[in-house]
Each structure stands twice: as C-alpha cells, then as structure tokens.
Amino acid sequence: MTSLQSTLGDEPGIAEELADNQRAISIAEFFEKNKHMLGFDSGARGLVTAVKEAVDNALDAAEESSILPDIYVEIQEADDYYRLIVEDNGPGITKESLPKVFGKLLYGSRFHAREQSRGQQGIGISAAVLYSQLTSGKPAKITSRTQGSSEAEYFELIVDTDENEPEISVAETTTWDRPHGTRIELEMEANMRARAQLHDYIKHTAVVNPHARLELREPTAHFKFERATDQLPEETEEIRPHPHGVELGTVIKMLAATDSHSVSGFLQEEFTRVGKKTADSIIDEFRDRHFGREMAWKPPASHEAADVAAAVENSTANKGAKATTDFAEGIADTVSSRDRIAHHELSTVVEEVADEVGDEYGTTFGSTVREKALESAWAALVGHDEADEEDNQDDQDGTDATNPEDVSRIVADLYELSDDATSTRKDDEVVHAFAVRLAGTFEDLEDDRHRLTRKALESAVDRAADLTEEYDDVAFGDTARENVVEAIWDVMVTVPDDTPLVRELASDRDAASDLVEGMRATNIMAPPTRCLSPITAGLVEAGLKKEFDADFYAAATRDAGVSGGDPFIVEAGIAYGGDLPAEGTADVLRFANRVPLVYQRGACATTDVVKSIGWRNYGLDQPGGSGIPSGPAVIMVHVASTNVPFTSESKDAIANVPEIEDEIELAIREAARELKRYLNKRRSMQKRRQKQNVLGKILPEMAEKVAEVTGRNQPNIDDAVARIMNNVLVERHLEDGDGGGDGDASTVKLVVENHSSTNETLEITDIVSAEPQNLSDGASAVEMDGEWFVSWEADVPGGEEATLEYEVSSEASFDIDVKGVDAEKLTITS
Ligand SMILES: Nc1ncnc2c1ncn2[C@@H]1O[C@H](COP(=O)(O)OP(=O)(O)OP(=O)(O)O)[C@@H](O)[C@H]1O
C-alpha cells in the first residue's frame, strides 16, 4: 500500500463524502457535455452534422418502405441563428414514437438489426435536437404524416437531459400537402464556414444514391440533383451473426438467451451459414481445444516384440480358451489393420470385438474384462512394460536412464514423425534424443489416454527442444518446433466426448472461449450478402463518371468478408486524367453505407490504407514512396456493413480493423491494377506516336533522295511506316471496271495487312455515296439518307491480310471508319 493510500484510508468520511457526490449521469447529459463526440463541435460543423443526420435518416426510411427518396434541405438565416429544414417523402413516423425519435438519445430501430443502414446507434437526430436547443434555446418543430393517414402530427419538443426523455411543448394534428413524410425544423447557432463540406456531402450523397432526388437551398446557393435511376437499391434483409469474429462477451450473452439446449442446436439456430455439417466441424474444433486430442500410435509391425494379442490373452480370464484367443486375436488384427490408433478408437475396437465374440460363443464379456483388455492392449501398443517402470525416472537431461538400445515404441514413433518434420541436416542421434524427451511427456501424463491440447503439445515440444539445445548443443529453431507440432497434431485424433450443454457453457467462460475459438478456426461459407447493398462496380464507375470528367475509370467490388460477426463489402473506384487537377494530391472520397464521410480524413482506416500503398507501382507519383499519391486522380472507397466500425459516434472515420483494412487494400489494388494497365498502354502508345512522328518526317525525305538517285518512282511511305511500326494497315484500291455492261462501275478493295504479331479484329464501316454491289462474304450494306454503310468485321491473324471487295459507281466517294485497333497502331491509306 502506498503512503497516500494509507493516509486516505485513515481519514474518516472521505469515501462517504465522495459517495455523496456520485450519481448516475444520463446519456443525454453526457452528450450535452461531449457534443464533439457526436460531430457537433462547432457551429460550422454542427450544421453539416445536423443536415447529415436528417438526410441519412430520410434516405434510410424511404428505402425501407421502397419509396424513391425525394429530399428537400433548406438553410435559412433567422436573426442570430440558422434555421435548418429537412423534408422527406418517407413513410412518416407514428404519433407514439415520434417524440422518442427526436427527444430521446439511444432510441432507434437499427441498433439491434444486422442489416445495412446509414443509421446505427439511434443517437443522430436526437443529438441534432439537443444541439439546437442548447445553442438557440428553441424547441424542434416536427411534422410527420404516415402513409394512408389523412392528417399530419405536429410536435414541438426538446430533450430533457436529466431524464433523457422528450419534453413536449406542443402536440397537435395539422394538415400537410405531402401524402406522407417527415419535416424537421431546427434552429441553431451556426455559420456557413463549412459550406464546401456541406456541398460535398450533398453532391457525393447524390453520386452514391442515384435513385434519390436531392435539393439543397442555402443562403447563397441552390442545387438540385435529379434522380439518375428509378431503381431502388437491392432490398436488404436482416441476418443472424456470422460465427467468424463474434466476440466472447456476445457469445456468452447469446448462450444465456437462446432456447436451444445443445451446442449444435445453438450454433444452427443463432448463427448464419451454420447447418448440421458446419456445426459438427465447429464442435470438433471445440473438442480439440476443450478436451485436447488423443495421440494415435502406430500398431506394432509383425517383427516387433510388442504383442497385443498376447497381452489381451493374458489379461482375460474365465472365458474359455477358444473364445479368449478369438477375442485377443480379433482385437490385435483390427489394431494392426489401422495406420494409427488412439485410445478411444482402441476402446471401440475392444467393445465391438467383445460383442462379436460374445455372440459367437454365447458368453458375456463384462465391463471388467473389457476394461482389462483395453488396458493391456493399450500398454502393449505404447510399449509400456510394467518391469521398466522403476527405471523410467527422468534424468536431468530429460532422457531416461534405461539402456538406449531398449527403444520404446512411442519413442520410435515420435522419432519418425520428428525426423520427417525437421530438416535433413539434423543428426539422427539428436532427433532421437529429442524424441526420447518428448516421449517423456506422454509417459508422464496423468491421463494415460495420451490426451493433449495443442497448447500443451506446443509446450512439450518446446521443452524437449530446449533440453536438446542445452544438452546436445544443437539449434532447434522455431520452424523445426512448429513443424514437429504440426506433424504430431496432424496424427492426433479428435475425441468423441459429449460437449457440455448450452447452459453449462453460458456459465463457463473458459469453455465458451474454446467454442469461440472453434468457431473462428472452422472454415465457414462467407455470410449471405442480402443484408448488404453495395453500390456495385458498374454504378461506382457510373457515379464517378457523372461527377468527374476523367480519361479513365475503374471500379472493383470485393466479395463479402466478416468482422465482429458482421458481414461487410468493400468497393473501390479510381478516376484518372481528363479535367482532374494535375497539381497536388489525389482526391480520396470515403463512403460508409452510402454516406459520404466528410470529416476526420486523417483518422480514417481508408486514408491509412491509401497512404500505405506503393502507388508508384501503379504508375502514380508518390513523393517519398508513401502517402497520398499525387496527380490527376480520384480514389473512392465504399465500406458497406451491417455495423460499420466508426472511430466515434459522429461516424466520420472508419476504425483500423485489420479485416476491413485488408479488404480496402485489395479493392483499391484491384482498381489500381486496371489503372496501371491503362497508364502503361498510354505510355507505350505515346512512345509509338513519337516514333511514328519521327519516321513520318525522315522517311519521305529518304524516299525522295532514293528515288532521285535510282530514277525510280517513290515508294509508298505509309506502307513502309506500317511495316516498320508493326501496324495494321488498311489500304483502299480502286480498280476501274472492264468497260463491259455498266461502263462506269469500279471495284473497291479494302485490304487489311496486319503487320503485328497478334490477332486483330477490326470493325470497318465504309460510308459510300452510291449503292454498293456484289459485296464479298461477311460484309453487309445498309442505306441511310442516301448513304450506304458497308460494315465488315475482319479477323486478321498476325502477319496476314484480308480483303473486302465490292463494286460501286466510279463517281462514288468514301468515308472510312475503323474500330477495334488503337489509333497509334493503325495506318489508313484511303
Ligand atoms: N425521417 C424519418 N422518417 C422515418 N423514420 C425516422 C426518420 N428519422 C428517424 N427515424 C427513426 O428514428 C430512429 C432514430 O433515428 P436516429 O437518427 O436518432 O438514429 P439512427 O438513424 O437509428 O442511428 P444513428 O445514431 O447512427 O444515426 C431511426 O432508427 C428510425 O427508425
């Protein structure tokens, strides 16, 4: 005890005095003092947070009722305050629950639901009411009309912070022109310094909620975001928790609350993705941890002295010679037919053979006979000789003092397992000494069924390895130890013991913890994703396209993962180039459950992951090799979960949860790989263009010179460039008709020469001013407004050519369009 404590203890009445001042604090009172935790730390921010809470609720409520959201937000200057009005066309709130929704903190419909929604805690909107009453002293004015109701309800209320209950000053029915929905009016001390954040929030909400109509009117600006689709997001369904990642405390609570009696029933009833087979696997994992596994030893080979039959025969009395021999041999034969056998397996063998032989000879093999047979057969199997017992005292170095020649069966078995599992460089004698030490653990076990948990096995292997290092002066490293543990654990067998009942587990923390570990260790199908509503890669890309004018877009949606029993999906998108600002760092847009995260960028797992990626590998600049990359890029990340782990109640930043960070990284990398391909291609095309430009200048000059010197015609430059650059060349040849019949007809030949080494598929459209005739196979012509569109798809292997032919009047003009080959790899002479 410290002197201060002793002084305090001596002073009479201090504890009582302190106790007099101690009292429960209501949650409302707590948040009144700690409003920053809810995102109301300043006037500027408070306004953005209030808008965010109201709009998120409006979107949630409308979607839940399959209504396409129509949301109106208005901010008015009202004397010294700002008035915030948010109206929605949602289902409305009933007269009974409305006061609690707005006047009581921690009241909501989503806290217990495992379903993706923007709201989670039941704090948001009541906190906005609290902030408004605190700064303006005015009550919240709420109007709500439920679907099908002829009138609306109107309330004026505040939060009674002592009681955390609504204090209603006005409650009346009224009329409202909206058929259903909710209107909130809050006055608060605020300013518009966070205007940019407010606009971003509304704009980005529109990007990821293309089914919503949003309107914002504030003192200096007015925006309308019309809906881009009438398709509501996939409806989500509530699910049970997934066994991966549920915490011990939650499982204990669930064990106490369930109606199931058996663990198997509990697992199947209370968790998602657990059927009978998965429950069995979880229970096996539980057994391994709770009871340990039993070591399965090799049966004696015919040349070994160990004789199971003789041992059983000697221990069986009064069953008649023939029955005894059949019993003993029946056991020995079954044992020797196995690769390995554990104690409980041997017990089953004894039971079965006893029943069989008993039936055959009309005699009963009672439990004592069976027990003795099991004991003697096991002793023979593990090479346990009663006579050796005295000698078997451990020496200081962990080996026993018996003659080393007299190697026990289990030492030989452990030697073989360890020798296979460790590197070939280890000396035989060293491995042997190690096996002897390890065998000591099994021999010394009180439980002679040779049961060990994995942890106990690990420490036994560690002990044997430590002693070997110490006395045999060799290294027995971590990898060797782990390999030996793995090899032995692999041959050990899960025991069939009955699992405790649910009510026993509920009051046994250690056993419950074994169950939780078992749940985590079992391979279980990913949770169903019907509880989640990802934006989907296609809409992420479309959303980015709508908002940012770039040259390149990519998006990725990952499969669902599990964290804390809650499924989650991460999506990422990247936009690059175009009108995006080339100066400065890339823009990182963060979303959680379709809500843009505006504040605390630096404290968010998303930002951390973006910073940790080596962006230079993907073709972006990253000064110093870490941090947010620079250049004309937007990186967007969306985390959808039934319970997003935010760093605080203000829901600004996602916490550093490893499973989620891993998925964020994988999603970003998936999109970034596409960016890299695009940038690589762009770079190589740029080089091609430069080379082509140089050739385009030099070649004509050379051709002219050569023609001058040789006196020949100048060769076709385009042909040469195409060949040098390994391009695809499309050449038009016009041949006059033969003068017969229709004298002014020409033959058009479009020749495609593929000078590259890869197969190329070209879509060629030749727009002709006169009707084409006799088109070669595979081509077609369609007339539109006096022009003929000749279409031809040519599949040309590397190094080969293909020709389209048709006839047309010699006066015709042509306009060719080629698709399917990058402009830089294409030469057209037409
Ligand atoms: N505009 C609305 N229309 C219909 N119901 C609403 C509306 N706003 C709120 N609610 C109901 O009131 C509850 C409480 O809302 P509140 O904003 O306090 O918490 P939340 O949205 O559930 O969670 P969070 O604290 O994470 O925002 C919601 O769960 C919802 O059931």
Could you walk me through the main structural features you see in this protein, from its secondary elements to its overall organization?
This protein is of the alpha+beta class and 830 residues long. The chain has six domains: 27-225, Histidine kinase-like ATPase, C-terminal domain (Heat Shock Protein 90, 2-Layer Sandwich); 248-291 and 497-521, Orthogonal Bundle (Helicase, Ruva Protein, domain 3); 296-381, no CATH class; 386-496, no CATH class; 537-681, Ribosomal Protein S5, domain 2 (2-Layer Sandwich), CATH 3.30.230.10; 724-829, Immunoglobulin-like (Sandwich), CATH 2.60.40.290. It is built from 24 helices and 25 strands. The strands form five sheets. Strands 5-4-3-6-2-1-7-8 form an eight-stranded mixed β-sheet. Strands 12, 13, 14, 15, 16 and 17 form a six-stranded mixed β-sheet that branches. Helix 4 packs parallel to helix 7, helix 12 runs antiparallel to helix 13 and helix 15 (409-421) packs across helix 18. The longest helix is centred in the C-terminal third of the chain and has 53 residues, at 658-710. It is flat and about 120 Å long. It starts with a helix and ends with a strand. Mean pLDDT is 89; it is low at 386-393 and 401-406.
Quick synopsis:
This protein has 830 residues and is an alpha+beta fold. Helix 12 (321-336) runs antiparallel to helix 13 (343-361), helix 15 crosses helix 18 and helix 23 (658-710) runs antiparallel to helix 24 (717-724).
